[in-house]
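Limitations
The structure tokens in this dataset are predictions for the assembled complex, not deposited experimental models. Users should treat interface geometry with appropriate caution, especially where small molecules or nucleic acid strands are included. An illustrative entry is reproduced here so readers can see what is and is not provided.
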Amino acid sequence: MKNYILSIFALTMMSIVLTSCGPGSTSKKSGGNSGALTSGAAAQTYVAPGDYDEFYAFISGGFSGQLAVYGLPSGRLFRVIPVFSQDPEKGYGYNEETKPMLNTSHGFVPWGDSHHPDISQTKGTVDGRWCFINENNTPRIAKIDLKTFETDEIIELPNSAGNHSSSFVTENTEYVVAGTRFSVPIPQRDMSIKDYKGNFKGSLSFISVDQQDGGMDLAFQIRMPGFDYDLAHPGRGKSHGWFFFTTYNTEEANSLLEVNASQNDKDFIAAVNWKKAEEYIKAGKFTTEKTRYAHNTWDEATHSATSTIKTEVKVLDASKLPGLVYFLPTPKSPHGCDVSPDGEYIIGNGKLAAELTAHSFTKMLKAIEDKAFDGEAYGIPILKYEAVNAGAVKNPGLGPLHTEFDGKGNAYTTFFISSEVVKWKLGTWEVIDRQPVYYSVGHLMIPGGNSAHPWGKYLVAMNKITKDRYLSTGPEVCQSAQLFDITGEKMKLLLDFPTIGEPHYAAGCPKDLLHDKTTKIFKLEENKHPYATHSEADAKVFRKGKDVHINMTMIRSHFSPDNIEGVQVGDRVFFHVTNLEQDYDVPHGISMIGANASELLIMPGRTETFIWEPKEVGVWPFYCTDFCSALHQEMQGYVRVSPRGSSVPISFTLDGDAPGAE
Amino acid sequence: MIAGILLFIPLFFLPLWNITLEAPQYPIPLGMDIHISKFADTHPFDIKNINLMNHYVGMQYIPETIPEFEIFPYVVGFMMVLGLIIGFFGGYKMFFAWFFVMAILGLLGMYDFYMWEYNYGHNLSEKAIMNFKNPDGSVMGFQPPLWGTKDILNFTAHSYPRIGAVLMFVGMGLTFLAGIVGFKESK
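Predicted assembly:
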């Protein structure tokens, strides 16, 4: 009997094992080319068909206003996320749902200049929740949800101009921080430009981030002297609670800055104690100033943006509040302001300097304690250079711009003028390697290279000039990035790849942080769009005065309804179109002849709206713009437009019947 | 006997059968789990997506429910109660009797399933978007296999028992064994 039980038990277990390996389980992808040729650069960047890249790279689109998503090491472009510019491909800034996202205190602005993406962090480690990016021209910060890869919030920054030293997050994403490159009169007023000095001011903005939903809020601004605040990075580890900004034009010139802002031997790195700022805010040491700025938020349930104009900001005056800001003298108009992974060294990339300056956070604290001051600027103490300086990389190259770290004690700096990337050692300041780039590199990016825990495997150099590197495309040629392997003592150039717009800066993270966590579809049942149509039977067309609303559905391979009559010349026709699909990667598009809008490209489960104002009598077709299915070419319909005042009633049908009829 | 009956309990919450459809465009295959009381998605929205695929060849939508789902839980429940009573009080003859009744009911279930599948695969709309003919000129049907694997156009269809059915088979095996043991002990 015992044997029976045992054998039956074994049989049962075997059956469970067998059925659980049935066709329902999918096979995992193979390891690709790993273990194959590891020598050649081609093998190192080859990602076999169907295999995945190891890292994501979010590379700013510069004057395109967008953010591009690439894979590393292949350099393949996956997606351009529309952020600050309209994108007709995706309907962004054209459809009624996203138009408010581009609203500002200056009204609707269709374009932006995106600069510095930064991924959210937890305990100093890149965590892949959100990506922030700044807009330089109309100062704004955007937040991109890294589940949907969509822009879901934009906040404008008042009292700012040239929002360049942004958008960098603190160690736990307590704040995303922004600075102003152009100082301006605050509040804005009619005054002579010649009176710049002493009258124009800078603003450093601290935007708090809600840890649950990422919601941004302009917590406070710090009013600063009228310098140019160029770049920034947070303290981390021991220097957590501080934020560092490079400055130039401490001369406070207002014209021919290339000469007049290059006169001082040393400009400053401004060290801001934001924990102290929080104390001052708590203690009520701020002034509340009237201002105007737009705050545009996104509701996932209605997938619609709302723009709100806010009118107040809390301001802390750095000139009057002791202990809030200190100046660290730093040679010659520093650009990048970079903090080593352990938080100890603050690197000032003096772009006109003969050497690369490293300050010590430990020495800085001691200098503050010892009051080792070398005067002050507008009431802000200037620390003695010798008292804070940790060392310098001698003769590193010409025109240093930006430095990142590999987490193994090395730093990598770009040199614009000598067109090279230089590897050097933290602490000993010796140069280890230098490699030419083609040409004139701006920033570089190592995934996690501006955090406490870099993934020091690849380095992406982002170049300003390409000239002869690619097939010629007329006078305007692409900008580019170059990928280096930094696992060895010497850097090894692996790959050139073109980029969109101008790649100012990038942020990267391992594939596993994002790839398996992205949204595949939007659940139709969670769609709370006011004009959502949850089934074909709910589709309808109705008139409200001169507005005609078409609540339409799309599913493989038809619209419902697809025959609509009763529209008149002079009407405003709203197409509210819901994609009923609930399958991954089955978007449908729609466009209407004569509509002064872009197409819509609607993801499964979502509703989007465009407006069409028919100007001529006739029967006008619309169609699906995305090859969705085998019968995509059949996915089309007609709207009959009658003269104004016509007696043709509103009607809407699918296959001759009311939509949803059996 | 009792142990065998207890193995029927999972039938009320684990799937009995599964049909899975594989195609190049579906790196994650579409699947439908069949329980004694419902059709269920293997992954969210699979049945909706199977319906969407199948409408191109004129197949009917998989119904929300079928009359059998009203009956099956009672039949299984009744047989379990009966089995427990027999297990406690009955002899090996009763064990065999229960086994054969259950086996016949199972075969009937399979036959019913086959008939549903046949209808599902052959009752095609006259306005079907795409029509396919077999090599002999007859209208191609799209019936998934009763048990096994079959290529249907761009899909490979798999139809196999799932854990609920396996446990049921084992449970039935146990009752049969209990019958044999009882028979031997009676000698």
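Some entries come with short summary sentences. For this one: The first strand of chain A starts at residue 55 and ends at 60.
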